[in-house]
């Protein structure tokens, strides 16, 4: 290395320090070429700059570049270097660490040393570095101490294995530094080093390090007193990983920690970062140590009070003196996202999910009136509204009892003079619409809709008009009885349409979203507004042509596509053709990749196709290929493990992925980033394909093969559940499309042979996916789709295929069962560890495990549900595989102590289907009845109506069989069980008791009909049946029972057709004539019986029977029919 070359190299580095221009770009290329072609020489040149150059920035840059080079793995730079070059690094770096006075350069040297040290230390070849670090224990040089601690912090990140080896010496170093007088920098580095190293320690050494906690807290207090807030923030932020992974580290000092951190949050100075970091830590700690924090209720209340102070930490806003109100509000909102108020609000939501419910409800109930009754500051009213909004879900049951008062608060503050209060009130009202739906939508719709209309019409600020429209959307989304609002749709639409031209583009977009929500609710009742709205929407599509209005056009297209549901398809067809042509022309002309119109076109095509059905077919040759091509495109992902290849060091952190519209997915140890918008768009595309193929039916036939090819990759998308779920539904729908094609004779290729091939192909695909799939939600959709296909395919699956499917289903069930027991074991172990205060387990973890357990239970039910389907539709092939083991499984479900669960219900369904199987011979029937009769009879008195219904139905099916000698032997026992079910008054308290009792009545009538002359105590059974009529709930059971009743009036006339019974008979007739609860034959027989009675009695007596019905509406109905 001669002087001239060093000067030239220094100039190159100086050029790299210039602003980004052409000179720098050229310099970057030159450096990369030098680095690639001569790695050893480039390394030595960078090292020599520490002594050669007089420019401090060059010193720092040379260390940064060298670190980037060593970190580079594509290709691996370190392995390219000669051994001699590597050896040069050690003494030079140690020299910099010992002698460099500039703090920034020293830190960069530490960063590089930590990376290089990982290679040397792993080979036990850099003892001098440890000597330098540990010698700080006896040093008076603050720079040496700070450098040692920062270097140890970096080493612990990159090479954790060395920590345990020198942990005792490190403990002494940390203890020494924390007890030093002064040098808060050193203490901050010390806390970071402790945080980084603790993860690599054995449990025994972790306990030793716990003793440092008191001194750590003292160091934080010193920083607070010295107002070194930045150091505090850095130190506290390094506590969070410990809290998440090893929360018991803080257990011994919990009270001191709570007290100290609450004081940090309560600092009067506006130090946002400190308050936010302190609050993040406190919330995390409370979440991770729930059992301990419950013992410290006073501190929890203080924490909540501190959170409220943060929420109220808002400056007065000067709306009145800002000409551009929308821009001003947007700036305020952007500032708000980094404010104490925002962090306080998000923490309040988190902590509410963890705290003892009774404690939380008591505190909220006491606090809200105090905040709302305050006359001092608008900020307190704002805080009260935010508290109300964030607690509404957690305190739902209590709030429901006081909903009148809470809504009164909200509506009062909607009239506040301060725009932020009105804004917070609207947000709170929107949250109520979600949390208290549909009760709020049904009981308070008049005041809510009138208030929102008034705000949209007369509010001064557009952002509040927009928010009111947003609340309308949420209100209608939570509605279950849209007909209730028929008097309000018109006024709301007229107000939105009239105001639309007076507001900015963003508010117009929200207005159109609200109009869409109204359309989805109002549908047919809005036909009178169709012409006005459609004209307005087409005007927007044709005239709002600027780049800024793309989203507005997208909203208009979506709204227009929904509007077709308010009128007949004949009226909509011309407009539909016009807006489809508009979308196709826009698409052909080319749209930018981020144009929101693209997704709106996909969504709109789906809705229009559903409305026009086969009339949409003329556009399918253009639209379907577009959708399939889009569905085939790979969704781009980014590995977050890759080192950034930018010229200077990267600060990228996957924690910030949300700010980049990026979801972080962790699979094993691999972190992957994927754009959220890409997933959402793919879901829209797939949903549109599904809606189009299910609407076009046989007309979708030409696209079946290419759909399977292009959709299949989406089924294996591992980063989201919805994408594969919708793709699987599309694949299943192909069988349905082919079935319609065969019936419509749309193509010579559409025949049963093709159906057979396609069905088998799709079922194989689905079973293969189910074996490989890890996401429970996706497996559930696969099973549902398989079940649907087995149900609808119009050919019998042969025994060989059934055998394969049986094995597949059985294996899926066993795998799910295994996961289920593993989760139960994990839950038990974690619960025991938590009770012993020795585990790292939180209430959130418990909730997640419980959710997974419920998911597995649901999946098992879905899997087993396939067996009744196979019994119903493929009896001949499947019944041989219904072996003793499988029957035993169902019997065990029915013998469990739990009175009702999904599997118990399903098991009864299986037995009902088996008994009902048409091809059972006498021996099989006798076998099943002998095995199941006690099961049916024991469930006749279940506390669950649905189980009583299934048990009664099983007996009813047996009674209807031609070969019913088996049930005849047990008639007395069966009748006794039916009597107990019908007469048990406790069942009358069930909300759904009729489903069980009605079926029992129909079963009793079936037995009376099937076994005439063999019924003991016949009159008692007849009168029980008679006194329970009519049946007005289950159509099928009612038709059957009422048909039997009319027959009994003839067959057992001496018992039933008595004068004292005629009034009751007429009353029964009056309730069922002209209804769905009887068939035509029964209706005609009733009229004949009435005429027969009329002949037996004089007019006065006959009219008295009618008047005894004692209900004018029923009397009128009866007279009308006779």
TrEMBL record:
Signal peptide boundaries: none
Keywords from the UniProt entry: Coiled coil, Cytoplasm, Nucleus, Protein transport, Repeat, Transport
Keyword Zinc recorded: no
Main subcellular location of this protein, as a coarse class: cytoplasm
Coiled-coil annotated spans: 523-550
Gene3D superfamilies: Leucine-rich Repeat Variant
Highest taxon above the source species: Eukaryota
Domain IPO4/5-like TPR repeats: 104-260
Subcellular location: Cytoplasm; Nucleus
PANTHER family, per the entry: IMPORTIN BETA
Name this polypeptide is given: Karyopherin (Importin) beta 3
Organism field: Anaeramoeba flamelloides
């Amino acid at each position: 290395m001669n002087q001239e070359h060093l000067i030239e190299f220094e100039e190159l580095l100086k050029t790299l320090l210039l602003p980004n221009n052409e000179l720098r770009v050229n310099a970057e290329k030159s450096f990369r070429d030098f680095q690639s072609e001569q790695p050893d020489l480039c390394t030595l040149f960078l090292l020599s700059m520490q002594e050669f150059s007089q420019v401090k920035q060059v010193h720092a840059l040379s260390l940064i570049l060298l670190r980037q080079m060593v970190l580079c793995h594509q290709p691996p730079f370190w392995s390219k270097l000669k051994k001699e070059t590597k050896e040069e690094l050690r003494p030079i770096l140690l020299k910099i660490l010992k002698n460099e006075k500039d703090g920034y350069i020293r830190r960069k040297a530490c960063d590089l040393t930590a990376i290089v040290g990982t290679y040397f230390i792993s080979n036990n070849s850099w003892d001098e570095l440890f000597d330098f670090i540990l010698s700080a224990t006896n040093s008076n040089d603050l720079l040496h101490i700070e450098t040692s601690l920062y270097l140890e912090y970096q080493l612990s990140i990159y090479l954790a294995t060395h920590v345990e080896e020198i942990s005792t010496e490190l403990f002494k170093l940390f203890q020494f530094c924390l007890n030093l007088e002064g040098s808060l920098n050193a203490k901050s580095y010390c806390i970071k080093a402790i945080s980084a190293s603790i993860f690599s320690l054995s449990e025994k050494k972790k306990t030793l390090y716990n003793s440092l906690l008191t001194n750590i807290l003292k160091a934080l207090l010193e920083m607070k007193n010295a107002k070194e807030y930045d150091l505090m923030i850095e130190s506290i932020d390094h506590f969070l990983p410990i809290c998440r992974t090893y929360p018991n580290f803080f257990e011994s000092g919990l009270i001191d920690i709570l007290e100290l951190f609450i004081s940090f949050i309560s600092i009067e100075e506006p130090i946002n970062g400190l308050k936010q970091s302190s609050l993040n830590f406190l919330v995390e700690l409370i979440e991770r140590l729930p059992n301990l924090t419950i013992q410290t209720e006073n501190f929890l209340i203080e924490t909540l009070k501190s959170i409220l102070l943060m929420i109220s930490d808002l400056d007065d806003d000067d709306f009145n003196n800002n000409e551009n109100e929308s821009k001003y509000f947007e700036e305020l909102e952007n500032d708000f996202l980094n404010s104490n108020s925002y962090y306080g609000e998000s923490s309040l939501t988190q902590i509410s999910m963890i705290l003892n419910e009774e404690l939380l409800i008591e505190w909220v109930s006491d606090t809200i009136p105090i905040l709302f009754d305050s006359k001092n500051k608008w900020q307190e009213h704002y805080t009260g509204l935010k508290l109300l909004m964030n607690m509404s879900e957690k305190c739902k049951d209590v709030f429901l009892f006081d909903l009148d008062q809470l809504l009164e608060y909200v509506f009062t503050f909607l009239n506040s003079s301060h725009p932020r209060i009105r804004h917070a009130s609207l947000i709170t009202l929107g949250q109520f619409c979600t949390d208290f739906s549909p009760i709020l939508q049904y009981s308070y719709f008049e005041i809510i809709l009138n208030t929102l209309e008034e705000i949209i019409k007369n509010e001064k600020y557009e952002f509040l008009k927009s928010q009111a429209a947003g609340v309308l959307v949420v209100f209608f989304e939570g509605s279950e009885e849209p007909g209730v609002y028929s008097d309000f749709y018109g006024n709301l639409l007229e107000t939105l349409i009239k105001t639309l031209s007076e507001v900015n583009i963003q508010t117009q977009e929200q207005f159109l979203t609200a109009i869409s929500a109204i359309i989805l609710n109002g549908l047919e009742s809005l036909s009178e507004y169709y012409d006005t709205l459609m004209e307005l929407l087409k005007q927007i599509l044709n005239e709002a042509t600027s780049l800024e209005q793309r989203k507005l056009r997208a909203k208009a297209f979506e709204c227009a596509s929904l509007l077709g549901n308010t009128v007949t398809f004949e009226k909509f067809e011309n407009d539909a053709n016009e807006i489809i042509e508009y979308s196709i022309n826009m698409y052909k002309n080319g749209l930018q990749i981020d144009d929101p119109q693209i997704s709106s076109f996909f969504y709109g095509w789906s809705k229009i196709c559903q409305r026009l059905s086969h009339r949409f077919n003329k556009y399918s040759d253009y639209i379907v290929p577009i959708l399939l091509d889009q569905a085939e495109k790979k969704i781009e992902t980014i590995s977050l493990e890759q080192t950034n290849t930018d010229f200077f060091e990267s600060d990228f952190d996957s924690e910030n992925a949300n700010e980049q519209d990026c979801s972080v997915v962790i699979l094993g140890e691999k972190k992957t980033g994927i754009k959220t918008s890409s997933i959402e768009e793919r879901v829209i595309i797939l949903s549109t394909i599904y809606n189009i193929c299910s609407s076009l039916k046989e007309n979708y036939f030409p696209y079946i093969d290419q759909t399977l090819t292009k959709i299949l990759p989406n089924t294996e998308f591992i980063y989201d559940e919805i994408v594969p779920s919708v793709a699987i539904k599309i694949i299943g729908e192909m069988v349905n499309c082919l079935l319609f094609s065969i019936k419509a004779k749309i193509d010579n290729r559409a025949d049963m042979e093709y159906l057979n091939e396609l069905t088998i192909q799709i079922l194989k695909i689905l079973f293969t996916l189910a074996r490989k799939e890890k996401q429970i939600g996706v497996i559930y959709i696969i099973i549902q789709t398989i079940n649907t296909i087995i149900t609808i395919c119009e050919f019998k699956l042969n025994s060989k295929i059934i055998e394969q499917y049986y094995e597949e289903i059985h294996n899926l069930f066993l795998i799910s069962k295994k996961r289920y027991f593993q989760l139960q074991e994990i839950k038990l172990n974690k619960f025991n560890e938590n009770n012993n205060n020795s585990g790292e387990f939180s209430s959130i973890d418990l909730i997640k495990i419980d959710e997974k357990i419920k998911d597995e239970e649901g999946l098992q039910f879905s899997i087993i549900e396939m067996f009744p389907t196979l019994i119903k539709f493929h009896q001949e092939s499947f019944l041989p595989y219904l072996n003793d083991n499988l029957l035993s499984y169902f019997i065990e479900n029915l013998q469990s102590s739990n009175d009702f669960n999904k599997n118990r219900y399903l098991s009864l369904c299986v037995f009902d289907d088996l008994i009902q199987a048409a091809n059972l011979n006498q021996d099989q029937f006798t076998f099943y009845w002998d095995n199941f009769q006690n099961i049916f009879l024991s469930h006749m008195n279940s506390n669950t109506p649905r189980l009583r219904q299934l048990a009664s139905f099983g007996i009813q099916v047996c009674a209807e069989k031609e070969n019913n000698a088996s049930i005849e032997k047990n008639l007395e026992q069966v009748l006794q069980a039916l009597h107990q079910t019908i007469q048990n008054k406790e069942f009358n308290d069930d909300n759904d008791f009729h489903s069980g009792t009605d079926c029992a009545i129909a079963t009793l009538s079936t037995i009376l009909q099937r076994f005439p002359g063999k019924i003991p105590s016949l009159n008692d059974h007849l009168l029980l049946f008679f006194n329970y009529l009519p049946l007005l709930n289950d159509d099928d059971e009612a038709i059957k029972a009422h048909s039997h009743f009319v027959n009994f009036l003839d067959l057992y006339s001496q018992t039933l057709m008595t004068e004292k019974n005629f009034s009751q008979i007429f009353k029964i007739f009056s309730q069922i004539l002209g209804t769905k609860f009887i068939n035509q034959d029964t209706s005609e027989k009733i009229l004949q019986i009435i005429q027969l009675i009329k002949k037996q009695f004089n007019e006065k007596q006959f009219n008295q029977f009618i008047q005894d019905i004692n209900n004018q509406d029923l009397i009128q109905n009866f007279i009308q029919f006779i």
